[in-house]
Design brief:
This is RNA polymerase sigma-70 factor (ECF subfamily). It is built from 6 helices and 11 strands. By secondary structure, it is an alpha+beta fold. It has one domain. Strands 1, 2, 3, 4, 5, 6, 7, 8, 9, 10 and 11 form an 11-stranded antiparallel β-sheet that branches. Strand 8 and strand 9 form a beta hairpin. Helix 2 packs antiparallel against helix 6 and helix 4 crosses helix 6.
Length: 331
């Protein structure tokens, strides 16, 4: 619980920078330690394995460039939408992975990477992480990560200088193929959160569990939202637990419908999120398909301007898809 007014401006940037680094170790970005500082996913306590990620190249830059359709307020409340999605999720059947097959979870993402002296620049960088989970989860998993070139540099007035320094420094995002038993990849934390098996499926019991275990944020509501969002982002939450998670989100104070139709990677869903007053109004949201209960992705936007990023800039955006495949990439 926060007991004093949070720092602002440059002081806030300095205060949360080490937290963001730590967060990345347990989020879908799960990147090896480096001298680079990355933008928050979902919030400083970020979307855990938002391992789901990235907006298929559509969500970039500021909100004006985000493909939002019909973003006017709806008559339905966030609670109503989430409860309907919960009903649909619990009716859904999880993909069946047969012997010799793999559950493919593909996460596309764009994230801000801060760099330069005193982190005076930032680049919006696209990358994709695809994880292949075998039918026998104790067997060898495969992770394929590919990275692209930045789509935008900030501040806009210094984009040319930022691009030149980025070229000199080199990208912090690797392109690699890793393999490891039981989802253990070198340089990454365990891919499937261990606590998924102990989380209650009853919505009321799950709310109490999440409230007890949610820590590390500037508000308890943010901590609870982040814990659930991080898990959903892995793409590995079973349907019954996903349903209960939606019910819990519906009860967290401040949860609202932020956009009624958001396109992520060619799919349209409803964005449910909240603004965090203790982060200058930083906005985070998940996107779900209310008709199927499917989790589609997430994004986080700045709530106020900083010395690098303008108000409403995408800090991180993601889109996640799952399918069953018969083989994994070689090499």
């Amino acid at each position: 619980m926060i007991t004093a007014p949070p720092p602002e401006g440059a002081a806030l940037d300095e205060a949360i920078r080490p937290i963001r680094r730590a967060v990345l170790d347990r989020t879908v970005r799960r990147h090896r330690r480096s001298r680079w500082t990355f933008g928050a996913v979902g919030s400083v306590a970020a979307v855990t394995a938002l391992a789901t990620v990235i907006v298929g190249g559509d969500l970039t830059g500021t909100t004006e460039r985000v493909p939002v359709v019909g973003s006017h307020p709806q008559a339905a409340t966030a609670a109503e939408v989430l409860r309907r999605a919960a009903d649909e999720a619990v009716r859904a059947s999880d993909p069946t992975v047969g012997p010799g097959q793999y559950l493919e979870v593909s996460t596309k993402r764009e994230s801000q990477a801060f760099f330069g002296d005193a982190n005076r620049y930032s680049a919006l960088v696209p990358y994709t992480i695809t994880v292949y989970r075998p039918a026998d989860v104790s067997a060898e998993w495969t992770l394929v990560r590919t990275s692209g070139e930045p789509t935008r540099f900030f501040p806009a007035a210094s984009a040319t200088e930022a691009a030149a320094e980025w070229k000199d420094e080199g990208s912090p995002y690797p392109t690699e193929t890793l393999r490891g038993a039981s989802g253990q990849f070198e340089g990454y934390s365990e891919w499937t959160p261990a606590h998924l098996t102990e989380m209650p499926r009853d919505p009321d019991e799950l709310y109490a569990w999440v409230s007890e275990h949610a820590t590390g944020s500037v508000s308890h509501a943010e901590a609870m939202t982040t814990l659930i969002s991080d898990d959903l982002a892995t793409g590995l939450v079973p349907a019954d637990l996903r349903s209960a998670m939606y019910e819990v989100l519906a009860k967290i104070p401040g949860t609202t419908i932020t956009h009624d139709a958001v396109t992520l990677d060619g799919r349209t869903g409803t964005a449910i999120g909240r603004d965090e007053p203790n982060r200058d109004g930083e906005h985070s949201e998940i996107v779900i398909d209310p008709d199927s209960g499917a989790y589609l992705g997430s994004r986080t936007l700045t709530g106020s301007a900083s010395r690098v990023l303008p108000t409403g800039t995408v800090l991180d955006s993601s889109a996640v898809t799952t399918s069953v495949v018969d083989r994994v990439p070689q090499g």
